[in-house]
Amino acid sequence: MPEPAPRHRGDGPPSSPAAGLVVTNLGEGATLHLRVPGLPEVTDARRRLHAWLTAAHLGSDLVDDVVLAAQELLVNAAEHAYLAHHARPVHLLARLTAPRLTVSVTDTGSWQAPALDPGHRGHGLTMVRALADGVEITSLSAGTQVTATFTTGPRGTGQAAG
């Protein structure tokens, strides 16, 4: 039986069956929503976010910073919010409202305190804080949302082309 055709709305790339994708136009207030089923789909989500940011004419340094931060947040949520045998999807919502870009990653799992000695791991949020202009962690009734904020204008790491 053939797979259903990917759904597509807006000016972004069509979605794949693996990751849900909703894109609105790339003008003021543009949004990208990705449903990421698990770790194997993080690479696809990273590619889609990169394409969306590039299509929005953001500077390459800013695009690289945002994509790296988002990947780290997605991996953290996929690895740490759920028990391995109870994995559930995480959601990425990127919203561009110049001069700000916000990227939120939301899970429906449980916050887990970092290990006392994380070894070579456990530096993800530190890295995200270094890349973003601001990071907010919000405990939800069912899960956690981490939002990273970036400046897209002259004060940011990459200017919007125009």
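Second entry:
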Amino acid sequence: MAGRAPSSARRWYAEAAAIARTHQHTRATRLYVSGLIACAALTDDMDTAESLLPDLEQYAPSGFMAGEGTLGTA
């Protein structure tokens, strides 16, 4: 990712995670929180990335897009 991509992606993941939580879609919530963590790390915001890890861990892996669902812990 280059330029504004991480910050734009971070906003999109945050919005998607909020919508998924509202509709109790746990598979998607894990995926979006993981992406949010990865974007925070890419923008050197390690405090936010670390603070979101417990949020990610409350959603069990489902096998749905398993690779993307673990980006945040990488």
